[in-house]
Amino acid sequence: MTDVEGSNEAGAVTGEVRALLRIEGLALFCAATVFYGVSGASWWLFAVLFLAPDLSFAAYLAGARLGAIGYNALHATIGPLLLALVSLAMPWPIAGSVALIWLAHIGFDRALGYGLKYNAGFGFTHLGRIGPSAKTS
Questions:
Q1: Segment 91-114, tens digit of pLDDT
Q2: In which domain, by residue range, is 59 found?
Q3: Distance (Å, whole) CA 5 – CA 19
Q4: Which percentage of the chain shows pLDDT scores above 70?
Q5: Nearest one of 7, 2, 5 to 133, comparing CA atoms
Q6: Does 56 reside within a domain?
Q7: Could you count the other beta carbons within 10 Å of the beta carbon of residue 69?
Q8: Looking at the 3D structure of the chain, how many domains does it have?
Q9: What DSSP state is assigned to residue 12?
Q10: Residue 6 maps to a domain
Q11: Confidence at residue 129, expressed as pLDDT on a 0 to 100 scale
Q12: Does residue 1 belong to any structural domain of this protein?
């Protein structure tokens, strides 16, 4: 098996671990959505911003490496968790709302099998191959 940067799935999880990570993504989506609902924030804001992290797809126009960097920057949980901490430390409630929407999006993506990307291309993720690249294996 060669490195994921080449053409196969080395470094991608499989089997029960993959299923567990997808279930964990579903749990993140559900928890973030419930906390958002309890917060009393606008569902319009949720609807408008839910797919906003996917604007990072545009980074793929600059190539697979920059695409992966852009996608991963907006699909790693560290960003929204830091934003949530900021919202707790400062009187900035909108930051907490955005953080919950962002976490819900990440959880939704992971539940669907969209993992963090490798430089080999959009279809190469830590949760396995997706899209047309999955059909070639």
A1: 899 999 999 999 999 999 999 999
A2: 15-128
A3: 23
A4: 88
A5: 7
A6: yes
A7: 15
A8: 1
A9: -
A10: no
A11: 85
A12: no
